[in-house]
Amino acid sequence: MSTHTDKLPYFLGFDARSKDAYRSIIDQTVQAVTDSVTDTGAYKGASVEELQNLMEAATILPQQGCGWEAVLDEVKRTILPNFLRTWSTNYMAHLHSPALLESIASELILSTFNQSMDSWDQSPIATEVEVAVVSELCKLYRLGDDADGVFTSGGSQSNLSALTFARDWYCNTVLGHDVKKKGLPSCYQKLRLYTSEVSHFSMEKSAHLLGLGYDAVRKVPVDNLCRMDVNALKAMLAEDTEQGLLPFCVVATIGTTDYGSVDPVDTLRELCDRYNIYLHADAAYGSGVQMSSTYQDRLGNLGLCDSITVDFHKMFLLPISCGAILIKDRSLFEVFTLHADYLNREEDEEAGYTNLVGKSLQTTRRFDALKVWMAFQCRGKDGFASIIDTCIENAAYLAQAISSNDRFELAIAPELSSVVFRLKGSCEKNKQVRRELLHHHQVVIGQTVYQGRTYLKFTLLNPMVTHQHLDELLVLIEKLGNLIQ
User: Fold this and answer.
1) What pLDDT is stored for residue 2 in this prediction?
2) Closest CA to 167 of 246, 221, 237
3) Which residues of 304-323 are buried (b: 16+ CB within 10 A; e: fewer)?
4) What gap in Å lies between CA 405 and CA 229, rounded to an integer?
């Protein structure tokens, strides 16, 4: 029986028919996307119930396919109008950036060719691109000649990788125990990881997955700028060591999720050396600031760290997903190395073929390095510096505007591009203002808790945001606050 799907080739190939179909589908999709952008809003405002009703009415898996044209029509009707528009200057809720145009083009290329980054024979040029990009990143962050890295899905996977390196390094070098072969040592319940009380929740997740549990994570108090309190850490390390516990890693957060605060890596390096423990930098947020000659010093010397989490789908403005874990000592990747006859044969590697599966938690993996390769060449370091500088300076401007308005309270002065503040009054008022902006004004901002009270948050990753627009949003928030009792 013939169906609509018979008319559509399966893949792009060398024949004219498949090339025409590929070109037509891409062209029609581009037209549909651009036609859907009719205003500057970040979200059309549909409620949870409205979107759920749309999906309940849809037939997800019909007995017979309805064909490309019908599917595109349904996408235009139900999906495109209800997308969040990350490029809108009214979107500033999360560390969730707009995507640079050249990186969208790279997504088309890497999805079309669908390389798998586990073995060289599945990704020949893609492997060499990733190796070259990682080498450049290691130079950018001053990690030294023995450094290496691999691309990841983002900060959580990078942090899990880093804490695996830290655990195994400590067990091997300090305890003389090979976790890879023998599992956790008998004293595993004594292992302790130190991170600030406002660090990313992937620390607890990673501790769980590594068999250490949440109790292994020691949350260090922060100072009045939400940076790790080094004196508190010193006291905790001394106390824990005296009690026979085993500190194995400190995580410096280089840009906390809510506040953009930066822990002092230089001082933390000294402490880690004193106690012979691993120092990891979770720079998922702040890593992009390394591009800025003006603000780079705010990060400290990340080259002092044993590993660094880098995210490109935050301040670098690349599409999700795109991250990397960089390490100072490439030999630590032995943690993930395991040979399979069908995949990363030892004789191939001895002959010079690079099989990246030996450096990754993942086996099948996307060619995300292409996005970085294309964007870096397209914009250059100066281009990224301009983006970063604009966002940091917008945050400083907004913080000053908030501080000079007695209707608002500022949580802390921003170090990067996040501004946490509130309308004076009840927590409920601030919650209602955020919902009103989301559903009735096409403005999407964040919400968090600071010192036990509800605060609003602007995460400024879009260099197209102007000071005038920030002023207008503050006026709107103040107006909405006046209407809520």
Assistant:
1) 40
2) 246
3) bbbbbbbbbbbbbbbbbbbb
4) 30
Same domain flag for 354 and 443: no
The confidence score (pLDDT) of residue 348 equals 76
Amino acid letter, 468: Q
Cα gap 39→329, rounded to integer Å? 49
Neighbours of 420 (CB within 10 A): 25
Q: Which residue do the tokens 């902006």 mark?
A: 437
User: Would you state the pLDDT for residue 353?
Assistant: 85
8/5 Cα distance (integer angstroms): 6
In single-letter form, the type of residue at position 183 comes to G
Specify the 3-state DSSP secondary structure of 420: strand
d(CA 436, CA 364): 42
12 and 122 housed in the same domain: no
Provide the pLDDT for residue 6.
59
Is the CB of residue 467 less than 8 Å from the CB of residue 397? Answer: yes
One domain for residues 202 and 272: yes
pLDDT of residue 341: 66
Instruction: List the end-to-end C-alpha distance of the chain, in Å, as a whole number.
Output: 64
Q: Which residues of the chain have pLDDT under 50?
A: 1-3, 5
SS3 175: coil
Which residues, 6+ apart, have CB-to-CB distance to 480 below 8 Å?
A: 433, 436, 437
Domain that holds residue 187: 116-375
- End-of-domain residue from the set 316, 349, 375: 375
Same domain, 123 and 270: yes
Classify each residue of 345-362 as buried b or exposed e, where b means 16 or more C-beta atoms within 10 Å of its C-beta.
beeeeeeeebbbbbbbbb
Question: What pLDDT does residue 434 have?
Answer: 97
328 — phi, psi (to 5°)? -70, -35
CATH of the domain at 220: 3.40.640.10
Residue 263 and residue 149 in one domain: yes
Residue 445 CA to residue 366 CA, distance in Å, equals 31
Helices (H), 243-315: 265-275
Find the length of the chain: 485
